[in-house]
Amino acid sequence: MLSTSEHAHVTVGGMTFDVIISGPTDGDAVILLHGFPESAATWEPVTERLTAAGFRTYAPSQRGYSPGARPEGVDSYKMDHLVADVIGLIDALDLDTVHLVGHDWGASVAWVVAARYPDRIKSLTAASVPHLAAFGRALREDKDQQQRSSYMALLRIEGKAEQVLLEENARRLRAMFGDAVSQRLIDEHVAVLTEPGALTGALNWYRAMSSDLDQTPPVTVPTTYLWSTEDIAMGRAGAEMCGEYVDAPYEFIVLENTTHWIPEQRPEELANAILGRIGATSD
After folding, report:
1. Of 7, 29, 59, 251, which residue is 20 to 30 A from 47 by alpha carbon distance?
2. What is the pLDDT of residues 74-100, one digit of tens each?
3. How deeply is 72 buried, as exposed, middle or buried, from its count of CB atoms within 10 A (0-12, 13-18, 19+)?
4. Burial class, 149, CB count within 10 angstroms (exposed 0-12 / middle 13-18 / buried 19+)
5. 3-282: CATH number
6. Cut 0.85: pTM above it
């Protein structure tokens, strides 16, 4: 069927999400969930490879990032809401089951979606963030992960975090990407987060975090997890424990000499991992 690409507006629970839809209209569905401080544009290099292989991709700007989905208040960004957004999008797009992919915060949400709704998820590919039970254990037990996660304290301070990240033309926000992400994509990410209310919405994901997330059940769908050796936010301990929380075919891929920004820095390897997982699931 004809391959298309469009920017759609999808209504879920009274909110409107911007979704980049690409690929053949009859292709199997792949949902791509971005992280922080990124935008749906993070998936452009990966999408090119997935659609060329015949898949239909859906990359939503998530709660806080879409102009029509920026509710006020920290409680509006609890995990239950983020998960409901994904299932609501799948329903609104009239999709029965999908392959789910997530990076960073998008991976966190994807783990919970897959754990709670295995009947809707054909396969899971998660990049950077491991299963939340593994991450929670690492935070409790591993000093290295505790140090790596110390940056979250600033992001949880309402008002101050916004000021620090946006001052001087969002210098610190831009600096998070280092030289691993192209200037064009950085500009796109920053353009989204400098819209009114967007950065507060994105930071509310951190502020709404709760300690019970490490009680997330094991995932029972075929899963691939990718971790990069130069990731300053995610240490090896949680990455290596991840497989203990997958009761299904599982692959752990380590990307050497790669930073946290896997979708932008290593799109071919990530796309190959997604396609490999989908192929193995379909066998």
Report:
1. 251
2. 999 999 999 999 999 999 999 999 999
3. exposed
4. middle
5. 3.40.50.1820
6. yes
